[in-house]
Amino acid sequence: MEQVTKVSIALSSMRFEKNTTQYLLQKRGKEPFAGYIGLLTGKVQFGETIEEAAARLLESETGMTAEFHVVAIKHKLDYDCDNKLQEDKYFFVVCADNISGVFKKEFAGGTNLWMSVEDLEKAPHVFDGVEDSLHWLHSPQLTFREAKYISTECL
After folding, report:
1. 20 to 30 A from 135, CA-CA: which of 20, 41, 70, 107?
2. Out of 3.40.50.2000, 1.10.150.50, 3.90.79.10, 3.30.70.260, which CATH number does the structure's domain 6-154 have?
3. For the segment 74-112, what is each residue's pLDDT rounded down to a tens digit?
4. Which of 146, 145, 116 is nearest to 12 (CA)?
5. Which of these, 8, 37, 59, 20, lies nearest to 120 by C-alpha position?
6. What pTM was estimated for this model as a whole?
């Protein structure tokens, strides 16, 4: 069976509240990785543009709309404890600007959150690379990053 690389969106937005920058994130409510915090993620469907995928993802999971721009492309390779490749994914990291609508806190897969970096650093379970992705939201240039990740069960 041929394995294929997955193409996905990793999306966040920023707002300034209570004298700090807060980021739109999600806490997973289902396995695998229940309780982990990360960006909103979803697959790019066949025939869909990155902007269309981002709009669909944001609206379906938060009830909101926005304007979108790609800030980074991340190639993530996930390995198990035996160094066997489990997943090969490209994420288009997208910033949602001028976000509007009625915020849906709960969605089928978990909870939507607005968090500061300081609060994120205190969280017990955060997906690898989230802080890098949030940093890229502020970058004026497109970033490309490749990284290999070994399962946390191996550590």
Report:
1. 107
2. 3.90.79.10
3. 999 988 889 999 899 999 999 999 999 999 999 999 999
4. 116
5. 37
6. 0.91
